[in-house]
């Protein structure tokens, strides 16, 4: 196993079988070694800096029906909301006052938020905040749509691939969705010039070590700028409501592997990680993560963006979360920064 870790450290590629060995033979000692090397790799590129992104969850309407997600269209128990353009801009203003220089607009695939409306919104946000980076995370769209948003000023796009295994993908999604289209979207986004994030849930129903090895191979191949991984957490009104959640232990182990494989990657310690364990995000940072994404959405809608159960920070003002996060980040020897925090190769 040490040999595999050294290979990763030296920038050599691992094959699927080697990734699988690394996952299936993990021990607390190996995890500690990987975390130490991952933190060294991160600090070599970004120092001890952890970047903040202001997240605006602007709609929880979604036309898709992913089996794992509380926003799926078949979930009649979900209380739906949609922020107006004016409300979204107000969230960004508040974020800007608090020091944020990256905004992430995330939502379900809401048919009423048409490509044109999103394009206008991107344009307005970039016009009012030219010093900020804008990230979109609004699912699968035709290439022309991605291009129009990029032309309007969007800088980055988050679209987790969810699983790189076609059969597993089909277990997690209805037939209307396909891994092929997900991958087409990721390729288009990269070719257009976005800083792109892919990723997957750890411990999603049916996931095996072989699946995760395949995910890591895909990430190695695709070379994304960002990777979003967090534990799967059941949402009670979905078909997977009774499934067990992913673990902190495996998630942080994978964060370290991804950091070592891509030293320059922007790697969030996700809210889901903070939800399954009180110090989950801190442990993620101590394993090599370097991004946190506090919520800027109005308090009145926070609880309604219920992709999974018991989500943290739904009752706290953004300003309170920032203070809380600062303490948490400093508790593991890092420094919280609010600047744009571009990928090391995409600055200027
Ligand atoms: N609709 C967009 C999309 O799917 O890319 C963006 C919003 S979606 C809620 C963002 C991410 O939430 C998904 O990529 C998925 O990995 C994650 N997610 C959904 N349900 C989850 C669950 N039950 N536990 C953990 N993460 C979940
Ligand atoms: Fe919609 Fe995204 Fe949830 Fe799937 S994961 S149901 S696309 S919000
Ligand atoms: Fe939101 Fe602690 S980070 S309350």
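^ structure tokens above, recovered residues below v
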């Amino acid at each position: 196993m040490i040999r595999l870790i050294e290979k990763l450290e030296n920038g050599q590629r691992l094959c699927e079988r080697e990734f699988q060995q690394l996952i299936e033979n993990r021990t607390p000692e190996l995890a500690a070694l990987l975390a130490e090397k991952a933190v060294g790799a991160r600090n070599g590129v970004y120092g001890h800096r952890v970047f903040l992104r202001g997240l605006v969850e602007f709609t929880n309407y979604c036309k898709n029906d992913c089996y794992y997600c509380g926003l799926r269209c078949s979930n009649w128990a979900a209380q739906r909301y949609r922020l107006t353009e004016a409300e979204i801009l107000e969230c960004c203003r508040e974020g800007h006052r608090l020091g944020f220089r990256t905004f992430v607009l995330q939502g379900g695939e809401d048919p009423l938020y048409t490509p044109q409306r999103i394009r206008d919104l991107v344009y307005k946000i970039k016009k009012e905040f030219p010093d900020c980076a804008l990230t979109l995370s609004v699912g699968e769209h035709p290439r022309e749509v991605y291009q129009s948003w990029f032309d309007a000023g969007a800088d980055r796009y988050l679209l987790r691939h969810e699983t790189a295994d076609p059969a597993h993908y089909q277990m997690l999604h209805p037939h209307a969705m396909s891994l092929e289209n997900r991958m087409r979207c990721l390729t288009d986004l990269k070719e257009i010039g976005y800083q792109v994030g892919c990723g997957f849930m750890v411990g999603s129903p049916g996931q095996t070590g072989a699946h995760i090895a395949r995910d890591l191979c895909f990430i190695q191949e695709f070379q994304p700028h960002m990777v979003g991984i967090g534990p799967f957490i059941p949402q009670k009104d979905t078909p997977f409501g009774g499934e067990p959640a992913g673990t902190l232990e495996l998630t942080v182990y994978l964060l370290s592997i991804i950091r070592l494989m891509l030293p320059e990657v922007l790697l969030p310690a996700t809210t889901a990680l903070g939800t399954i364990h009180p110090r989950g995000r801190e442990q993620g940072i101590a394993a090599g993560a370097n991004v946190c994404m506090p919520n800027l959405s109005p308090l009145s809608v926070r609880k309604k963006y219920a992709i999974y159960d018991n989500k943290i920070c739904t009752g706290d003002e953004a300003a309170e979360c920032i203070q809380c996060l600062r303490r948490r980040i400093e508790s593991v020897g890092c420094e919280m920064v609010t600047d744009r925090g571009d990928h090391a190769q995409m600055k200027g």
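The first strand starts at residue 49 and ends at 52.
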